[in-house]
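Q: Got one fold?
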Amino acid sequence: MNEILTCLLVVGLIGLIAGILLVLASHFMMVREDETVGRLRECLPGANCGACGFTGCDGYARALGEGKAEPNLCIPGGNETARQIGEILGLQVEAVEAKIAVVHCNGTCTASPARAQYDGMESCRAVAMLFGGPGACRYGCLGCGDCAAVCPTGAICMADGVARIDSRICIGCKKCVETCPKEIISLVPRSGKSVVLCSSRDPGAAARKACANACIGCRKCERSCPEGAVSVAGNLAVIDYARCSGCGLCAEGCPTGCLKAADFSLAGAV
């Protein structure tokens, strides 16, 4: 009986000592969270989109707390989030330019014929590996929806073979931009009033043969713009949004309709 009690006593003492050591270890080795980082994290929208260049909102908050990031990098949070971050850090913060993603393609099923039939994995990246895709235009949207799959707000849908982005719910997180293997999605200012819905770099005749809605590099838009905001480079019209006044003359003169007037502050898919 004494032997049993002795064993129990030894086990109990070992347990007590181990418990005390664990309490001491948790106290002295605890990683204390910076209160400033916690406050910064509360300001962020929680989209974890990575548009700021860091690993989600937690990573951005830590970088802000360590002074390794600018306070106006959160595109989804916009000016209000930047203002709150500035108040916490005691900094003057420049305004955040709201942006929206745009698919620079209007090669619908009727406008751009298929030159081959694809039967395989429904993935834009997989399709692109097979001679650039089955479409006649080698620059066009592949239509498998990789961009829609990564969109955190469900702002992207596929319509008539082309991805469309709903300006009402796009937060400009850039995930679709990084996912598209054709690199035909970009972020443009939400204040923009015109958009080029084409990415073809082919000469006019070849571009028009591949897609009825293609930019043919005719420079009518360039000549009609009173602000000099439109230029043609590499057979493709490009808009300088810093100079664009939104007059709409470029869109009116476009013979193929690839350059369109747009108001991203309103509802709609682009």
The chain has two domains: 35-89, 99-261.
